[in-house]
Amino acid sequence: MPEQSQALKDLSDAFTSKGLEARAHTLDKLTDLFVAGAESFSETHIAVFDQVISLLADAIEVRARVHLAERLADIGNAPLNAVRKLSRDEISVARPVLARSTRLTDNDLVEAARHGGRDHMLAISERRDLSEPVTDVLVSEGDRVVVNAVASNPTARFSIKGYDMLVAKSHADQLLQSALGRRSDIPRRHMSVLFELAKAAARDRLKRDTTSEDQINVSKAVDTSARDIAKEAHDRSRIYQEAAAEVARMAESGALDEAAIQDLCRHNKLEHVVVALSTLANLPLTMSQRAVLSADNDMLLILARSAKMGWPTVRAIFSARKDHKPGTRQLDILSENYSKLTPATAQRVIRFLHARETAAQPRN
């Protein structure tokens, strides 16, 4: 690799030079070489780049480090030590890798959250598929802004302990109550607490705005509203039970296939689609709910590809969504991404997510 040899030779000149620009220029050339060949490099090659890039990163100004972080943030096999070092830098440098780099482990993110401060926590809260160990730290050690940010991340995962902390903090934070109420994965007992909090807040707010003689009627109205909310949750649970029974009958008769799912989509039976996808992919219902009902497009692609579904079926599910229906241009991008995703890769991701979700369940 003559270009790489020349770039490595230039290092000695860069270090003998007193100018920051010379060092930054050499680092930029070296990063160009890495980015161009990243997909073909072995771990040995990457380790060499890692050592050199890390060395040069210590000797350049902030602006050049920001540029380096932006370039490495989206590379799946980026030099690990360099990415870790960037993640511990000041926030303008750290933000790209904290928010996007898949090279950072949960331990790396926990360390950055604990030692980097609020801005580092906020950058981490933007990541896709945050795991329970990371969200536990963000919720327990972050301030109100951080907690609201991570609670509003639809792809974040929370442990039972994490939800306990979130609900406890929501007593004095109506914004957090709203964020938690929008989550499709919140456990039922935590949702019940939110109902009670909402009921109490509504009663207090209305009492302040009414005369004493009307307060009995206010309490009755609030109780009625809370019962309506609880009834809606109960009805939703009943619908899922009915959907599960119908999908089970379809599976037993051999009628549970892609044509059946497309038909369910045409009839807007999203609960049935959730159960059908869960059955075909052999995954927990909560994971299927998130894929079908939330804005997490990638999860739907992964679950569908793991079940070896064709794109027309996946497109039908996207189009049947009520609140998160992609536009035509976004569907084209999703189709392209789906064609690049192999069943083997999707199944590996599913196994990882399933194992992580199982490990997060409370032990009896």
Write up what this structure looks like:
The chain is mostly helical. It is built from 21 helices and no strands. The chain has helices spanning 2-16, 20-37, 43-57, 62-72, 80-87, 91-100, 106-116, 118-125, 132-141, 144-151, 160-170, 174-181, 188-208, 215-253, 258-266, 270-281, 285-293, 297-306, 311-320, 328-340, 343-360. α6 runs parallel beside α8 (118-125) and α7 packs parallel to α9 (132-141). The protein is globular and about 70 Å long. Mean pLDDT is 80; it is low at 228-235.
Overall geometric form: globular
- Poorly predicted regions: 228-235
Q: Report mean pLDDT, rounded to a whole number.
A: 80
C-alpha Rg, in Å?
25 Å
Helix content: over 70%
Order of helices and strands: HHHHHHHHHHHHHHHHHHHHH
* Global structural class: mainly alpha
Count of DSSP-assigned helices: 21
- Strand % is under 5%
Q: Sheet bearing the most strands, described?
A: none
- What is the CA-CA span between the terminal residues? 58 Å
Number of strands: 0
List its salient traits.
single chain, 364 residues, mainly alpha, 21 helices, 75% helix, 0% strand
Chart the SSEs and their pairings:
Layout: H1 2-16, H2 20-37, H3 43-57, H4 62-72, H5 80-87, H6 91-100, H7 106-116, H8 118-125, H9 132-141, H10 144-151, H11 160-170, H12 174-181, H13 188-208, H14 215-253, H15 258-266, H16 270-281, H17 285-293, H18 297-306, H19 311-320, H20 328-340, H21 343-360
Helix pairs in contact: 1-2, 2-3, 2-4, 3-5, 4-6, 5-6, 6-8, 7-8, 7-9, 8-10, 9-11, 11-12, 12-13, 13-14, 14-16, 15-19, 16-17, 17-18, 18-21
